[in-house]
Amino acid sequence: MKALQFSRTGDLAALEVVDLPTPVPAAGEVLVQIKAAGLNPSDVKNVLGRFPYTTMPRIPGRDFAGVVVEGPQELIGKEVWGTGKEIGFVRDGSHAGYITLSARGVAIKPASLTFSQAASLGVPYTTAWDALERSLVQAGTRLLVIGASGAVGSAAIALAKIRGAQVLAAVRKPDQLKALQEQGFNAIQLDRPEDLGAQVNAVFAGGADVIFDTTGFWLPASVPALAQFGRIAIIAAPTDGHVQLPALALYRKGGSVVGINSLLYGVEACARMLEQFGKQFDDGTLPLPTGLIESPLEEGLARYADVNQGGADKVILLP
């Protein structure tokens, strides 16, 4: 089979297109023929050496959609999708023709999603789902999502909407603001951090119950925008990993910070998440992904470079 593989880290030039034997599933595993595989920023960071626990040589890639060709009889021929912390890091990932993983680590793909659409959703949607679950977003929760036009942010506002939360989306650019408003979301344009509290309180009197910062840069500014006993969920941080937090204001409000890390969840836990919200694509309550860039697996190095340079398009690799 064709695969992308790296045997060292630190440079994208370490990534090569190679021919490898088709893997053989162990007991309790499935062999999935990959039909489409998502390319996430974490896949690029993996090749660059940002994850010290990665073992090599390694096929990268976390998200996939495909067809089960070996494994338990009840799964043979099923169209599935999956993601998880193991694949691409300590066992071979999805940027290849085939992948093996736990039979409990795949979920049945929603019929309304194409393989490419399903492969685009794993990391963004499981991250957003975890953020909403752990910050206790439910019907009536006043939720601010910072960076709502990004992959995780857009997943968060879509999932929060079907939970019945009151959603306020925050973005940087006027065109992003307009697009969200045309979709029916209440939205604000981010400007100076010191103005965020007033902007949010003008919409949510007393502040937001939950603030989900998908960017890593608005944690200090979020505290004045937070309601009493509110929660701030974060998935990113500045390059050095540090921020100055107004701790006095945070604890006086009874506020808390919730760290969200998709790499805490293995393929089996992720499959259970996919099962929970996957059916909502089929019933029309979650929007189908659009604007995907499909690319042959053999052009993977160029696509990795695009993502590394900050390309906003969601890339799908096709074996």
UniProtKB/TrEMBL annotation:
EC id: 2.3.1.111
InterPro entries linked: ADH-like_C, ADH-like_N, ER, GroES-like_sf, Lipid_raft_assoc_Zn_ADH, NAD(P)-bd_dom_sf
SUPFAM superfamilies named in the record: GroES-like, NAD(P)-binding Rossmann-fold domains
Pfam family, one: ADH_zinc_N
A GO term for molecular function: oxidoreductase activity
Keywords on record: Acyltransferase, Transferase
Signal peptide: none
CDD domains found in the cross-reference section: MDR_like_2
Enoyl reductase (ER) domain sequence ranges: 10-317
Matching PANTHER family: PROTEIN AST1-RELATED
Protein name per its UniProtKB record: Mycocerosic acid synthase
